[in-house]
Design a protein that fits this description.
108 residues; 4 strands; four-stranded antiparallel sheet; elongated; alpha+beta; 21% helix
């Protein structure tokens, strides 16, 4: 049996979420531990669902986890450092034109 793991963000349909495969996760307890680990690593995940897929193509949901600590994308985590202000570099001076270079070459 193979397990399909769908991870989706807040407001995203489950089938449009990220899809991973695993042959190691076969029980509800393993799926729960994996879901909590995924949500701790990426706090923007809202839901993780585990589908058992058999060799003949049949599938069924055997575990679904909703992250109670979901932080919507764009919201900073508590204690996160503020973003640095962008530093704008000064544009280089344009190269002198042909006439200016000729004057300079002739000593004018």
């Amino acid at each position: 049996m193979t397990t399909e793991i769908y991870s989706c963000k807040d407001g995203q349909p489950l089938k449009e979420g990220k899809l991973d495969y695993s042959s190691d996760i076969t029980t509800k307890d393993q799926a729960e531990a994996d879901a909590k680990r995924r949500c701790a690593r990426d706090q923007t995940l809202k839901k993780v669902a585990y589908y058992g897929v058999s060799a003949d193509g049949d599938f069924k949901v055997f575990y679904s986890y909703t992250n109670p600590n979901c932080k919507p994308a764009g919201v900073k985590a508590a204690g996160a450092a503020p973003a640095k202000a962008s530093v704008r570099k000064k544009a280089p001076a344009p190269k002198p034109g042909l006439l200016a270079r000729l004057k300079k070459g002739l000593g004018f």
